[in-house]
Amino acid sequence: QSALTQPASVSGSPGQSITISCTGTSSDVGGYDYVSWYQQHPGKAPKLMIYDVSNRPSGVSNRFSGSKSGNTASLTISGLQAEDEADYYCSSYTSSSTLVVFGGGTKLTVL
Amino acid sequence: QLQLQESGPGLVKPSETLSLTCNVTGGSISSSSYYWGWIRQPPGKGLEWIGSIYYSGSTSYNPSLKSRVTISVDTSKNQFSLKLSSVTAADTGVYYCARLGIPVGDWFDPWGQGTLVTVSS
Q1: Distance, in angstroms, between B106 CA and closest chain A CA?
Q2: What angle is formed at CA A18 by the lines to CA A15 and CA A20, rounded to 5 degrees?
Q3: Contact A4, A72 (CB under 8 A)
Q4: Residue from B32, B44, B108, B24 nearest A38 by CA
Q5: Per-residue model confidence as pLDDT tens digits over B54-89
Q6: pLDDT tens string A5-36
Q7: Is A36 within 8 Å of B106 when comparing Cβ atoms?
Q8: Is the peptide bond before B103 cis (omega within 30 degrees of 0)?
């Protein structure tokens, strides 16, 4: 069982917006602004999409945005495109000895 | 452009030691601004952080693996390495190396392409 909780799957039609949630505790997501999101296509390495809750690395589309409220972080993808179909993982720093926790991943299907 | 590349045996026997190396190109591993680390992904499952290292040699390990993991750095070769001892089938998966932000756990970017390690006799 992963330390951070994500929905197993979400889906949306091209052009729509979807949101993926990532729920932790006050020791990780809720306590620090060190939440990141990764996109992983089948057979490929994960790619950083959002860091420090809401910052986009250079080169990442502005259709991707991140936010946080309490112990839950969220990734929103607007204007869904077929190429967005992938697995998405959240991650957070944690004050426990583990230091790093990941979510179990969410499979995004573009209908 | 910073790139990371994992290398090592793709097949390891049970009870033996898994050894991988991550070669860093396009940037210096001796930068004071980053950590370097290993993450693994069992087939069809999620991501698990293994551990990380600073260029000075300071390490942090996942407590669930700490007794079996050693990460080291060779700044002269611009690479860092992973050793995981007493492996079992549960250690089978894709192993990635990555650059980490500070503090450890902030972000991972970029990632190597990953290398599949199978534990089997």
Answers
A1: 5
A2: 155
A3: no
A4: B108
A5: 999 999 999 999 999 999 999 999 999 999 999 999
A6: 999 999 999 999 999 999 999 999 999 999 99
A7: yes
A8: yes
